[in-house]
Amino acid sequence: MTLAVDHLFLLIEPDGPEIEALRHLGLTETYRRAHPGQGTANACFAFDNLYLELLWLTSEPEARSAPVARTRLWERSRWKQERVCPFGIAVRGDLAGAGVSTWDYRPPYLPEGMGIAVACASDDPALPMVFVSPGHQNPANWPEVQRGQLQRAAGFGNVLSVEFGVPAHAASAPLLRALDGARPPLSAVAPSDDRHHLRLALADAQGRQTHTLDLASTKLGSWRISLIDERLPVRSWQRAWAVLGLSAPEGLMQRLLGAWAEPQRHYHSQQHLHECLALLEPALDLAQHPGEVELALWFHDAVYDPQGKGNEACSADWACEALAQAGASHEVQQRVHALIMATCHDAEPVGDDARLLVDIDLAILGADPARFAEYDAQVRAEYRWVPGWLYRRKRREVLAGFLARPAIYGTERFRERFEGRARENMRGSG
């Protein structure tokens, strides 16, 4: 029998900000439930075929009591201190049939005599807690759940696939390999920074993947949550060239995406490009030459060597070469070149387009605390060759320069949204 994923849990702080973050992204909280005797409670977000459970500890004595202790939920709740796995994978089906040895857990909150088969290998808290769910139906078939409590209002139906980011020794563990063939497919990868993440590929009502829900751990011990529109890059690329009245050189988009994915990048990556494009889309009305601003964003860190100089100039030159190949006028080429050079951040941007582009590039400074913490760690990773004492001194100098400005953001819209948080983030950094 094929295993079906029933739900996925991750540990958060009690009633943590992750719940509100999911709501802010347009997702609907399906229900909350306490687990008397187990010492946990949850908030659940149900898709048509599985649900995401945000789980937190409510009672240490209960979580460490004899019936519960072997689940290691206590240790998992302390994942940020203990370097253990904060994830759980509940399946429908026969784990033993998949070659997984189990033990019988009798949760105090379930009816007497009802048990849950938990993988013995999950005794190692570095691995996810893998167990058989007491539930037997997809959320879409739950009798007590109405359509409005699923994620259909946000445009989502099924979860198409699940990716876990776990340390290398956990990613290759036999327990996770035993889940190969589960539906939807599960995969485990080992991020270079050993941080945990959970990514759900989300489908629309027609079964087409449109978004990825990305939950990534940060050095603060919280989760950075984002909803990635997988259609945005193509939409943005096509729009920019259409507005310019030009056809993009063949294969250029893929070459650019390849450049943004180079291994030396941690912050200046496709994540940053995607965040920039997502910020521009609702702000295109602020641009005088929207196609030029959008294309400048695609190229602004296209060349990036943390140990090199002239990255912006090389990126701007590449943009001009592409524009020339497409038949753009010299004036367009020069304006795009100037926009990219404005991201050196060594002078006040001149003109509406430059102010918008620079504001987008600096929006990360005003990100929520979890994303800013991730950004801080990503920048440090790009400069890992710099001694710690020197890096900290230079980083403080850079941030002090931004803090000394009368205003960090040049447009009123970005200033209202990001200025206050950016100053809080930078004062607390370093």
Q: What report would you give on this structure?
A:
Helix 10 (290-299) packs across helix 12 and helix 10 (290-299) packs parallel to helix 13. Helices cover 37% and strands 18% of the residues. It folds into two domains: 4-229, no CATH class; 232-427. It contains 16 helices and 13 strands. A six-stranded mixed β-sheet has the order 2-3-4-1-5-8. A five-stranded mixed β-sheet has the order 10-9-11-12-13. It is an alpha+beta fold and 430 residues long. It is elongated and about 75 Å long. The termini are far apart. This is Glyoxalase-like domain-containing protein. Residues 5-94 form the Glyoxalase-like domain.
Short description:
This is Glyoxalase-like domain-containing protein. The protein is α+β, with helices and mostly antiparallel strands and 430 residues long.
List its salient traits:
37% helix; elongated; 2 domains; five-stranded mixed β-sheet; six-stranded mixed β-sheet; alpha+beta; Glyoxalase-like domain-containing protein
